[in-house]
Write a structure and sequence with these properties.
alpha+beta, 3 domains, 3-stranded mixed sheet, 8 helices
């Protein structure tokens, strides 16, 4: 009899432990039973169950009950107890209300392994804001929008983009100008020795002689080129600006220091040239040849003797080469990329200015 009682007692304890291990408890708590209109309250829903059970919390789209809105739902927080033999899961609901009333918050339903469990019911009292109707002068209208304090950090990006955009814009304008006038991006500079005045003049006369402009019925052009060559030679040889002087002024200046016989031939050349330019004189072919020879003789008689040991004076000559097709394509692509980058920067700058000044 005594042994039977012990067995029954042990079986009862085992059954109670199993029942306790499988029990599910649900509890709801609210942090404030009374709030003002627009204030917030927090409901904590807590479920205790076995670790292997599946727990599903209720979902509220926007309202808990009519007049009580759900603003935010936190993620479930899980804790394990008794060496992971029990599990406690908590979830918080942030609620508010904009109507003064006493609200009954019904039990919240929890689904545990497809079996529903209900929490305890709650209550929430919402009060309206007290208004002093006896002193209406104490009411104030809406305050103006306050402008935020000036902070340099808000302008760093805008300033940096502005400093980058300015040189890019200058570079874009330079590229556009270059592609329009068909000039290369980089000019090649070649250094060549400077020719003495008489050699440069003889090269020009040789070119005039080969062109034979007078045979094409253009004596004025022929004498213009010939006299300009002589004037340039006189400027470089004697050191005065013969290009800005008349024929008679040049002759008078040369008579002061040079051979009159050499200047006589030059005087005949200038006289014929003036007649052709201003009196529409049509010289004969032998007359054109004679004046050409007069120019050559004047240069030979007045040139500076060459010093074989003298070093030629260097001069820089800029050589402009036409741009290749490949360079044009690369230049066009560069202009396109620069344009796209500048447009993006200007849009960004405009948006930043709008956001900072609005």
């Amino acid at each position: 009899m005594k042994k039977s009682c012990i067995v029954i007692l042990l079986l009862s304890i085992f059954a109670l432990n199993k029942l306790f291990a499988q029990s599910v408890t649900v509890e709801a708590k609210i942090d404030s039973l009374q709030i003002l209109i627009g204030e917030q309250a927090k409901i904590e829903l807590q479920v205790a169950s076995n670790p292997n059970q599946r727990v599903v919390f209720p979902v509220y789209p926007d309202t808990l009950v009519r007049g009580v809105e759900v603003l935010e739902v936190s993620k479930p927080d899980t804790q394990y107890l008794n060496n992971r033999q029990r599990m406690v899961i908590s979830q918080e609901y942030i609620i508010t209300s904009f109507d003064s009333a006493l609200y009954y918050l019904p039990p919240m339903i929890i689904d545990v392994d497809n079996q529903q469990y209900a929490s305890n019911a709650l209550a929430l009292k919402v009060f309206s804001v007290p208004v002093d109707t006896l002193n209406p002068d104490a009411f104030f209208g809406q305050k103006r929008v306050m402008k935020p304090a000036f902070v340099w950090a808000d302008w760093y990006g805008l300033i940096a983009c502005s400093f980058i955009a300015i040189p890019l814009l200058i570079l874009l304008i330079y590229f556009v100008i270059r592609i329009r006038d068909n000039k290369p991006i980089i000019r090649k500079v070649k250094v060549e020795p400077k020719l003495p005045p008489h050699q440069a003049a003889m090269q020009a006369i040789e070119r005039i002689k080969n062109e034979k402009v007078w045979q094409k019925g253009e004596p004025k052009e022929y004498y213009t080129q010939l006299t300009d060559t002589i004037r340039t030679y006189i400027r470089d040889r004697f050191g005065f600006n013969a290009l800005e002087m008349t024929s008679s002024e040049i002759i008078e200046r040369l008579l002061e220091d040079n051979d009159k016989e050499a200047i006589k031939d030059l005087k005949e050349l200038f006289q014929t040239a003036d007649l052709v330019k201003f009196a529409k004189h049509d010289p004969l072919i032998n007359e054109n040849d004679a004046n050409l020879m007069n120019a050559i003789e004047f240069i030979d008689e007045t040139k500076i003797p060459e010093d074989e040991n003298a070093k030629p004076q260097p001069t820089e000559i800029t050589i402009i080469e036409k741009r290749s097709l490949r360079t044009k394509i690369l230049l066009g692509c560069g202009i396109g990329l620069l344009s796209a980058g500048l447009i993006a920067m200007f849009i960004y700058i405009a948006m930043q200015l709008y956001n900072l000044l609005a």
